[in-house]
Amino acid sequence: MLAPRTIFTARRLGLAAAAVAALIQFLLLARLIGPGLVSSYPGIEYDGFDWVLEGLYLRALVQGVAGPPLLCLRSPVFVLVTALDACLGSSGLVVVGVLCLAQGVSLAMLVSIWRRLGLSGAGQAALFVLAAVSPYVFFQSIILADPVAIAAMLVSTRLLLEWFLTDDERWFRAGAAAGLLAGLTQLYGILPFLTGACLSWVHDRLAGRSGWSRVFCTTVVIGLGGLLLALWHGAIPHEHVPVQFPLLRLSLDMAGFYANVWAWYFGSLGPVFLVLATAALRWRCRVFSPASRFLAAATGLLVGLLFFYQCEEARFSWYYFPLVLCLVACGLVWLKRVGWGWAGRAALAVSLVLVVAQALVLTPGDFWQPQVRELQWDPQESWAAQLVSARPVDRLDLAGQCGAAGVYCEKARLPADIEPDEQRLLRDSIRLRLLPGNQ
């Protein structure tokens, strides 16, 4: 067993590494903001326009000058972030800073989970590199609420994991609070908590004890989440809200798409999966700990729901990628226990080489809808090269129409190649930026 001083040092190293990764990301993204996110930031599309617009709208609503209802009202947490940015001058630094902070929190939670599962320091370091330079970093430069939702989801997962390991009720309640925050950012964020809550009931039955306190806590979280969303929807004028359930369908139509997505985004983990599968055939593990069952169930729920979600966007698999890394950690610990630790280490080393290649020299062409047949050796189009070479843009031609890239005017020109809904978002953003105090 590691000495307390060693554990404390490892914890500090993990936090320091997560902080450094978040700081590097912030420095890379902050230089791309230019005069503002909507007008100048290259990594922003429809969803990003909407998040920023809703922050501007919330600020204007408080001032009593919001105007017509929003086209679509999103979940509150990230809207509050963009609203804070709007209140502080719409520089974009608040939004980018929160996204980078969320990435740092996610990495810190992952390291904490791996350490709690008993993974060696070298194994933690290797998985940290995999998490920090995975091709999913491409999406971390896009203005989305997902990094915040994933961070809160991982905090909830870490706290629930501690409950499964210690049965201390305080961890469950804290995990419930973090799960609620995740769900109020993006709905999928609460799913690991709900999974853990269901398994806690089974855990209690097997232990021969009452679990009504956890049932009550889960009911309160669900009820409070529904109430807060109802109040949010009632307070903000809007035409509709995002509805995901109609896109869920029991069908194999997405199999071809995900074959390409998983090959690209999870391909670097292939050597580890191969070793784990080979070892499992030789040593059949029939007894799983409550912690590993929780991680597997939460991952399986997200994988299943998103596989049947009829929308071809690779970023959806990003939601459960951190949980997959936690399962990999469980597998590596098991390999060491059965005497195959050497094979796990060798496979992890190969995985590191592959993920670095994905970061520096390989590209699938389209990171949103990758195709294995389009995989190329092209260092100039890798996600790392794209991030480093990106520069601010003048999306609305403010310099030409309004005199300077950071000055809004009624002559601001919308891009010609965007959809009608996107045009409305940009027009509303321009209208709100022209209000007194928003320039």
TrEMBL record:
The chain crosses the membrane at residues 93-114, 126-155, 175-202, 214-235, 255-281, 293-310, 316-335, 342-362. The keyword Membrane applies. Keywords: Membrane, Transmembrane, Transmembrane helix. It comes from the Bacteria. Signal peptide: none annotated. The keyword Metal-binding does not apply. This is Glycosyltransferase RgtA/B/C/D-like domain-containing protein. It comes from Solidesulfovibrio aerotolerans.
